[in-house]
Each structure stands twice: as structure tokens, then as C-alpha cells.
Amino acid sequence: MLPLVLLAGMNCTHELWADAGLDEAIRPELECETMDEQVAALGDALPERFAIAGLSLGGIVAMELALAMPGRVAGLCLISTNAKAPTPGQLEGWQAWTDRLDAGEDPRSLQHSILPSLLSPGAHHRPDLVERVLAMGDATGAATLRAQLRMQATRVDLLGRLSSLRMPALVVSGIDDVICPPRFHTEIVDEIEGARLVSYDAGHLLPIERPHEFGRLIRAWHARLRD
């Protein structure tokens, strides 16, 4: 079967997909300091032809990869993500996190500080989900998170370039996502010919909140793709 690649978001790990039934997927870490370096590293490491799904920063990397190597990407799935250039406020926020890391704060603590933005109102009061989200910060570690923050600052606007993509595209949005709200996903779908939009009652980390529904969706989408 066509290989499936899963790219998690910033300060997240493969635990993001743990209950979705996608255990056979390739799950690279994002650990480069620039977007160009990350795309090049994935290009060297991944199979010649693959389907790719990415959440948040992982979705941005997936878009960059599809634009750089369209002949290798058989299908593109974008989850809880944003195709636009960073805002000044985002750049300031990422620098503030870097400063906090430099001052000795750990990724778990930084993850805890934005829990209400990562999970929907109902989910961020569930101790089991909260611990999984915080544990991803522990597993990411300061060095990788610092690299991801630097990579975020090298992002550029992709929205105006997405119309060149011709592979099947699936866009998945959380209705309660305050980091990448539903309108960001509608913008992406409007640019990619034939793209399909699916929305769930969930927050930013929707594969953790709705793993079974999400997993069924991705498996069905993946099964329809042709090498």
C-alpha cells in the first residue's frame, strides 16, 4: 500500500495519533531550524511516493513539501493548520517561548500554559487527555522545541500558491479550534481544486479528542489513493 506519512505539530509527538489506528504510518520528527531544511530532510528520508498528513506546524511542512515535490505526493491531508504567513503577534509569541526555554522553563510547562487553546472546552478538563498533551511536551524536549520555534519564524504565505496543487486533498478542522479556526481551513479548500473539508466538534488537537472518528476518516481517505 502507498506509504502514509504523519507529521505532528509543534511540541507534539507521535502520541498525537496513538488511538487513531494508524500504527503503520511513517512518523518523522520535525527538528530542523528552517522550513527549507525540514523539507529537504524529509525529501531525503521519505519513500519516492507517499501520502502525507500533517497537523498544525506539521500541516505547514506538508504543504511546503507538496509544493516543492508535487510528483512524490499522492495525497495531502491538512489538519488544524494555517496556510498564511505568521502575524507579528505570532512571531512575538514564539520568541517569548524561546526566551522562556532559555530561562530554564520546560516544554511541559509551556504546553500547560496554552491548554485551553489546544483542547476544546470540554476536553481540557479531562485529566487523561491533559496528561497526554503535557507528556508530549516532555517527550519533545527543549532542544527540539527550540528548533521548531525557529522553524515557525521562517514560514511564508502559502495560500496563494496552493492552487497549483493537483493531488487529492483532505482538510480537517476542529469547530472549537482557536489556534487555527474553521475559516483558515475554508480558505485552504477554496484554493485547492477538488479539496474536501471535514469538521469535527473538537479543538486544535482533534486526533486526541476524536481519535476513532479521525482514524476512520484517514484510513478511508488513504485507501482510496493510488500510487
Question: Which key terms come to mind for this protein?
Answer:
alpha/beta; 227 residues; Rossmann fold
Can you walk me through this structure?
This protein has one domain: Rossmann fold. The chain is built from 10 helices and 5 strands.
Mean pLDDT: 97
- pLDDT < 50 stretches: none
Strand portion, in percent?
5-15%
CATH architecture: 3-Layer(aba) Sandwich
- Give the count of helical stretches: 10
Helix content: 40-55%
Assigned CATH superfamily: Alpha/Beta hydrolase fold, catalytic domain
Indicate the CATH topology: Rossmann fold
Order of helices and strands: EHEHEHHHHHEHEHH
The profile of the biggest β sheet is: 5 strands, parallel
Q: What is the C-alpha radius of gyration, as a whole number of Å?
A: 16 Å
Overall, the morphology is: globular
How far apart lie the N and C ends? 8 Å
* Strand ordering within the main sheet: 1-2-3-4-5
* Number of beta-strand segments: 5
The number of domains is: 1
Q: Which structural category do the helix and sheet elements fall into?
A: alpha/beta
According to CATH, what is the class? Alpha Beta
